[in-house]
Design brief:
Blueprint (H helix, E strand, L loop, with lengths): L1 H33 L12 E3 L2 H5 L8 E6 L4 H15 L6 E6 L11 H10 L2 H14 L7 H10 L4 H8 L2 H16 L7 E4 L3 E4 L6 H12 L2
Parallel strand pairs: 2-3
Antiparallel strand pairs: 1-5, 2-4, 4-5
Helix pairs in contact: 4-7, 4-8
Length: 223
């Protein structure tokens, strides 16, 4: 009887530890990843609504839109790719979905913004995004190094001369300025973050498809 009671006690205690561990993981995820409970607007929060004045002065051109702010160095962005591709195809008519790279002088996640903007101008960014994620996140390749970047471009059959020419073009500079303006206007310092109808700034705080439903709900609420 004592052995049976001891076994039940051990099992109950183990289950208790599992539950507590899970709760602590979720809590830490919100505090340290999203800073959900932070009052300081300079920190990333799971949800923010900007003022009417900020909406009116937004650098985002599309009124009915979802803007993903991502980074080639962001593991969560890479993990989201398939889900977001499916989600963007299911949006109601008149709603646009666009990705921009976080762009800031003081944020390490922004280091690859010029590469993103140049690939966009070449019309191939979406086609090679997975390769960029894999190189930077999985293989720890520093694409900010021009010699390393050249090898990556060749490996992906990208014209190196055309890339280097376009990287210095006004079109790429304008795109970088636009992405920097969005990053600064919405005070974004982490990725992925989604800007909905210029008004809501949302960090992913749940799994797909629940998070997709939340974004769709915010789209409807803003009509």
């Amino acid at each position: 009887m004592a052995t049976k009671f001891k076994r039940i006690t051990i099992i109950s205690y183990s289950l208790f530890l599992i539950v507590i561990s899970s709760l602590m993981t979720v809590l830490c995820y919100h505090i340290f990843v999203f800073n959900t409970f932070a009052a300081d607007d300079s920190k990333t929060q799971a949800f923010r609504e900007v003022s009417a004045e900020q909406v009116a002065n937004s650098p985002i051109k599309e009124d009915h839109s979802i803007i993903e702010v991502m980074s080639y160095a962001c593991h969560y962005c890479a993990a989201n790719e398939e889900n977001l591709a499916e989600f963007s195809q299911s949006l109601p008519p008149g709603i646009t979905f666009t990705s921009v790279h976080i762009t800031s002088e003081n944020n390490g996640l922004a280091a690859y913004a010029p590469i993103f903007a140049t690939l966009e101008e070449m019309g191939i960014e979406k086609n090679v995004r997975d390769s960029a994620y894999n190189a930077i996140i999985t293989r720890n390749i520093d694409l900010t190094d021009d010699n390393v970047l050249k090898k990556w471009l060749i490996k992906n059959n990208i014209d190196v001369t055309k890339f280097n020419t376009l990287r210095q073009s006004d079109a790429v500079k304008d795109r970088l300025s636009e992405m920097a303006a969005i990053t600064a206007h919405y005070n974004i310092n982490a990725t992925p973050v989604f800007i909905i109808n210029k008004r809501y700034v949302v960090a992913q705080d749940s799994e797909f498809p629940q998070f997709a439903q939340r974004m769709l709900q915010l789209l409807k609420e803003d009509k």
